[in-house]
Design brief:
By secondary structure, the protein is an alpha+beta fold. The chain is built from seven helices and ten strands. Helix 4 crosses helix 6 and helix 5 packs across helix 6.
């Protein structure tokens, strides 16, 4: 069955995003796979070159860039203002990379922190629920029948740091394509994820009686499951196909 989640219910709630960073500049006497680089050898920390983002309901992604001096402070401030308008930030490997790099740059640039932000990570969503040959964004995008990531090379990053405007524009396009692929990947994965760290029904409506995955109210009772605290109601969503057990034990007055 093709489960179609009503994405219009998520307008103004979800923000898909991706970042691109500069290289860490180090000095070393040697090169090779076994060379150790110590913190004392770091000459310049990585900075954020650009951030692309797209809210659910938008036709196109938008991009913020570091300034002409390759300073990312204004970019950090501007994206923080955007991010605070949304309930959940969605990224590929966002929990381990994007949000941590962003927070680290906020701290280094003495920009106010971005606290109490809920996140969903499509890398975790696929890893926790599926056994795939790869969980990279490009691979999963192509499994969906899409074209995958836009091609970039190490030389493009070098040209960006040299101040090449054409390379910078190319990187922004590369980042925007990632966000577009991320958005479609998220909606493709969602029906197949058994459990999410964010209950979307509570986020959208505050109603725990809606589907926790797609927030639809078209749910049906699906038997019960015993627990140490008593019987618990099982539910089934006719919209996204999600099957779950209520965390609250049934009382003697509840109808089964």
């Amino acid at each position: 069955m093709n489960y179609a989640i009503d994405r219009t219910r998520f307008k103004g709630k979800l923000l898909f995003w991706d970042i691109e960073t500069s290289f860490i500049h180090v000095v070393t006497h040697y090169i090779g796979s076994k060379v150790s680089i110590h913190p004392q050898q770091v000459m310049k920390e990585k900075r954020i070159i650009c951030i692309s983002y797209k809210a659910e309901g938008w036709k196109k992604a938008k991009t913020l860039y570091w300034d002409k001096n390759q300073d990312d402070k204004k970019l950090l401030k501007d994206f923080s203002k955007v991010a605070r308008k949304y309930d959940v930030l969605v990224a590929q490997n966002g929990d381990a990379f994007d949000i941590k790099v962003f927070t680290g740059r906020l701290w280094q640039q003495k920009v106010p922190p971005l606290n109490n932000i809920l996140t969903l990570d499509t890398l975790k969503m696929s890893r926790q629920n599926m056994k795939l040959s790869s969980h990279r964004l490009d691979y999963k995008s192509k499994l969906m029948g899409r074209e995958g990531k836009y091609e970039m090379h190490m030389g493009d990053w070098l040209r960006v740091e040299e101040g090449n405007k054409k390379a910078l524009k190319k990187m922004g396009h590369y980042c925007e394509i990632d966000v577009e692929e991320l958005q479609e990947l998220f909606w493709s994965l969602l029906p197949y994820c058994n459990k999410l760290p964010v209950a979307l029904n509570v986020m959208l409506t505050g109603d725990r009686n809606d589907c926790p995955k797609c927030s639809n109210s078209e749910i049906k009772r699906n038997g019960t499951r015993p627990s140490t605290s008593g019987l618990r109601q099982r539910w089934y969503c006719g919209c996204c196909g999600h099957d779950w057990t209520d965390s609250r034990a049934l009382s003697t007055t509840d109808k089964i």
